[in-house]
């Protein structure tokens, strides 16, 4: 394995000294106006990364981005067009007013937070991983009672909530270091057996090796060659681009994204995803186990998690790519793909009561471009549970769509990212939140949040998982409850004007998470039991809780992780039943 000649390390000590007196609220920045434009407009004129550091979201952007706040869901109504919109939104999301930091060293406002918050920050800081004196990430788990396996490594996807927590607390240096170190790892030669992976593949994880004899440190990366199933992480590159944009939005520092190395890194990732082949769909074809669900779980094909992350990464890349010759070429390809992808996902992955009834009545073996059942899905393949699960008002993006196959399972991460990226229309975003409320016991229960629903069991479990003993029914990825998903739910709630849903979920988690020592996941239909193979002191469970709390306390943090809807594709807004008293 060869390493690049160019070293893109940063001077962390200098950054730390500069940031000691910086307030968290001073480094926030808004969803800028360039995010509100039609995709195609980016081809017409140069795009300037113009960041207003006085607030995280401008009034007009957030008023359109937020679908609304129902009298039933809010303590009092607010005027979305009011100049005091931020104060009104903050007062609804946080009865105690706008604040951030939770009495951490960066906090500037004194108040009495939940006692878990201080414990969570201490645990998060203990998880920091250093490389040659610089913090470069957080370890997956600090559970000393179990065998390490790969839980002693820094995972790209796992670090995202940790990175957001540090950004929200005014500590961007660790995020910058992580972005640059993983970028350097991307340029390494990547081989599995005798096959060489694509140049743009990002690592799933990396580890710092200490040599006490030679008194030096080296990085070891895993691109899938050591993973269970030997599957490359498709999601790592997408999370990297999303995190780069979050860093830029939070700090106002455009110089990192404008580095030639970062521009090249984005183009390499995009080259893998935008290459032409035999596909007849704009979605990405993936192997099982290529994302958060990293074991055999029947998510091969076109999983919703990857498609939503793909969409969000494309939109982030549009905002970060420079308008040079190479950048313009990729912008053109991205714009075309976004239009096709948004249409495909909103048309064929979306399921609500009407669509379910239409599929139930599908005719099969249709031929020609006028076919209604375009994927030749057999109505008899509809699972019985979906008829009871689907509420009268509500809907969601199903797990997978491919020829003659629809996976009707609910996947939390994909649906939340669909809301945050505006892959979901305002109406669809509302329906997703309605579904969560209507099916609270099934999706939240006694510990938020189900990674997927429902669980597979008996013959289906044996065939699809290969009798995986870790993914038994209502455990781990097979219907397990994952506290890390709290931050995604909270962000989606804030974006849709439904903070009370997030507050309710956080209160449930607070009753147990600290007492149970921050487990990785919970088992059981209601999430009542600590997972049978769950690690304790799981870092992203800790960070996910902190991000959820900080986002509720200061909704302006949403700006770093949410993107405005394209106005040219914005449909007529129709409110569902959950908006009425």
UniProtKB/TrEMBL annotation:
Pfam families assigned to the protein according to its UniProt record, in alphabetical order: Glyco_hydro_100
Keyword set includes Hydrolase: yes
Record field: catalytic activity: Hydrolysis of terminal non-reducing beta-D-fructofuranoside residues in beta-D-fructofuranosides
Domain of life according to the entry: Eukaryota
Alphabetical keyword list: Carbohydrate metabolism, Glycosidase, Hydrolase
EC numbers for this chain: 3.2.1.26
Biological-process GO terms, alphabetical: sucrose catabolic process
Presence of keyword Hydrolase: yes
GO terms assigned for molecular function: endo-alpha-N-acetylgalactosaminidase activity; sucrose alpha-glucosidase activity
Top-level EC class: hydrolase
Signal peptide (UniProt feature, chain positions): none
Xref: InterPro entries: 6-hairpin_glycosidase_sf, 6hp_glycosidase-like_sf, Glyco_hydro_100
Family membership: Belongs to the glycosyl hydrolase 100 family.
Role noted for this protein: Invertase that cleaves sucrose into glucose and fructose.
Protein name per Swiss-Prot or TrEMBL: Alkaline/neutral invertase
Organism expressing this protein natively: Gossypium tomentosum (Hawaiian cotton)
């Amino acid at each position: 394995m060869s390493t690049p000649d160019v070293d893109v390390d940063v001077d962390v000590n200098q950054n730390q000294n500069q940031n000691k007196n910086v307030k968290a609220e001073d480094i926030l920045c808004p969803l800028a106006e360039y995010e509100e434009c039609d995709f195609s407009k980016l081809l017409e004129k140069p795009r300037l990364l113009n960041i207003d550091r006085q607030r995280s979201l401008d009034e007009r952007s957030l008023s359109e981005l937020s679908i609304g706040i129902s009298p039933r869901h809010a303590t009092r109504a607010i005027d979305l067009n009011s100049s005091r919109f931020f104060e009104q939104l903050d007062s609804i999301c946080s009865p105690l007013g706008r604040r951030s930091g939770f009495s951490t060293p960066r906090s500037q406002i004194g108040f009495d937070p939940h006692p878990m918050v201080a414990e969570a920050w201490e645990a998060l800081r203990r998880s920091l991983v250093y490389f040659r004196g610089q913090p470069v990430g957080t370890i997956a788990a600090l559970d000393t009672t179990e065998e390490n396996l790969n839980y002693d490594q820094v995972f790209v996807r796992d670090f995202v909530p940790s990175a957001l927590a540090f950004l929200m607390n005014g500590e961007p240096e660790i995020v910058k270091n992580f972005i640059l170190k993983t970028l350097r790892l991307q340029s390494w030669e990547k081989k599995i057996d005798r096959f060489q992976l694509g140049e743009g593949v990002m690592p799933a994880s990396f580890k710092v090796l200490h040599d006490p004899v030679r008194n030096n440190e080296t990085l070891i990366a895993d691109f899938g060659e050591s993973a269970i199933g030997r599957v490359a992480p498709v999601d790592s590159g997408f999370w990297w681009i999303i995190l780069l944009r979050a860093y830029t939005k939070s700090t106002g520092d455009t110089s990192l994204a404008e580095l030639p190395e970062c521009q090249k890194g984005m183009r390499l990732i995009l080259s893998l995803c935008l290459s032409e082949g035999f596909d007849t769909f704009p979605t990405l074809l993936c192997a099982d186990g290529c994302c958060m669900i990293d074991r055999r779980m029947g998510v091969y094909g076109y999983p919703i998690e990857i498609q939503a992350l793909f969409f969000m990464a494309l939109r982030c890349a549009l905002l970060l790519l420079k308008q040079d010759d190479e950048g313009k070429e990729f912008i053109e390809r991205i714009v075309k793909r976004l239009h096709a992808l948004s249409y495909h996902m909103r048309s064929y992955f979306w399921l609500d009561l009407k669509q379910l009834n239409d599929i139930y009545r599908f005719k099969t073996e249709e031929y020609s471009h006028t076919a209604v059942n375009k994927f030749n899905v057999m109505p008899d393949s509809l699972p019985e549970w979906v008829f009871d699960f689907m509420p009268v008002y509500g809907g969601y993006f199903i797990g997978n769509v491919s020829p003659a196959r629809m996976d009707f399972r609910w996947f939390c991460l994909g649906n939340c990212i669909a809301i945050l990226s505006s892959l979901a229309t305002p109406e669809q975003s509302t329906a997703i939140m309605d579904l969560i409320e209507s099916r609270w016991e099934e999706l939240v229960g006694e510990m938020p949040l189900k990674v997927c629903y429902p669980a597979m069991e008996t013959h289906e479990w044996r065939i699809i998982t290969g009798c995986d003993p870790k993914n038994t029914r209502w455990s781990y990825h097979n219907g397990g409850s994952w506290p890390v998903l709290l931050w995604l739910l909270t962000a989606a709630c804030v974006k849709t004007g439904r903070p009370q849903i997030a507050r309710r979920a956080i209160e449930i988690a607070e009753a147990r998470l600290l007492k149970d020592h921050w487990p990785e996941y919970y088992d059981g239909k209601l999430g009542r039991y600590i997972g049978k193979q769950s690690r304790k002191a799981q870092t992203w469970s800790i960070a996910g809780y902190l991000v959820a709390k900080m986002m509720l306390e200061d909704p302006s943090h949403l700006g770093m992780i949410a993107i405005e809807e394209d106005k040219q594709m914005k449909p007529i807004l129709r409110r569902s039943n959950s908006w009425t008293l």
